[in-house]
Amino acid sequence: MPRIAYVNGAYIPHRYASVHIEDRGYQFSDGAYEVVNTYRGRLIDELRHLQRLDRSLSELSIASPMAQQAMRLVMREVVRRNRMTTGLLYIQVTRGVAPRDHKFPRSIKPAMVMTARSIPEFPQEMVDDGVKILTIADIRWARCDIKSVALLPNILAKQAAAETGAYEAWLVDECDYVTEGSSSNAWIVTVDNILVTQPTGRRILAGITRQAIISLAGELGYTVEERPFTVTEAYQAKEAFMSNSSHFVTPVTQIDDAVIANGKPGNLTIELHQRYVRFMEESAPIDSLMG
Ligand code: PDD
User: For 210-252, how does the pLDDT look when each residue is reduced to its tens digit (9 = 90+)?
Assistant: First the structure.
């Protein structure tokens, strides 16, 4: 069955889908995006992702390409046409097409692309074994709260991690604080079982998974401290993990050369992972989401 992409109003076979060479997303990374996890026929935290997309666009003065309800219809149609039950839905909105010029015309029509990619269920080995992290300087801009498609520092960090055998890069600011991962939020658990993660603000993306974890941890009776933590604190943590829409709660068992605790995923991390999976299972199936 061919994959189908949505491109500016049309559903097109993925292999023929393309955008204009003067799309400002292509020329200037002038756009924003979202990745929505689709878990067994459920769009996880759909509305929060759409709210964040709206916020990113409004911070960039890019017009919304369509009303939220219409966007939800397109999302369902992309999922349906690709017969995706478990996978990732990618939504990208750019400022649109215009002759190359740094300044932009105010009346430009935004461009929107949506793709769906089925993926196998999340590998249990990653939960059982945990992953390695490489720390690296955070060289990004001062508006990391915007989910911009400009990801050069992120991709370079992730590539550097991969080349040293690590799974993810944790970005470190000038004060030695871990801000977040190249495509995830970063967490540690202290000896007192307190969860610690960088506060939201302009230094990090306010992860939708991060927010869900804060709520679930509260329900489970754990304390979450939203404060910066240093690389040294992370090395000495009782547990560590990363979170995002495609990895849920993934244990971290090594950071640089430091093995975290006994090198096995921590109990609290595993509990949160399981609780998050249950949260996904309890989410409404796609068809009943229209309201
Ligand atoms: N990335 N921080 C950064 C820099 C991210 O790129 C992401 C997500 C997150 C976690 O956000 P959420 O929990 O809403 O997925 C944090 C997506 C998955 C990506 O770029 O593929």
Answer: 999 999 999 999 999 999 999 999 999 999 999 999 999 999 9
**Topology of 124-280 in CATH?**
D-amino Acid Aminotransferase; Chain A, domain 2 (3.20.10)
CATH architecture of 4-118: 2-Layer Sandwich (3.30)
Residue nearest atom 1 of ligand 1, based on CA coordinates = 183
Question: Which protein residue has the closest C-alpha to ligand 1 atom 5?
Answer: 183
- The span from the CA of 52 to the CA of 217, in Å, is 22
Cα Rg, the chain, nearest whole Å: 19
Residue 258 CB-density burial (10 A; 0-12 exposed, 13-18 middle, 19+ buried): middle
What is the reported pTM? Answer: 0.97
- Among 39, 90, 205, residue to substitute to test ligand 1 (most atoms within 8 Å of Cβ): 205
Distance from residue 91's CA to the centre of ligand 1 (Å):
13
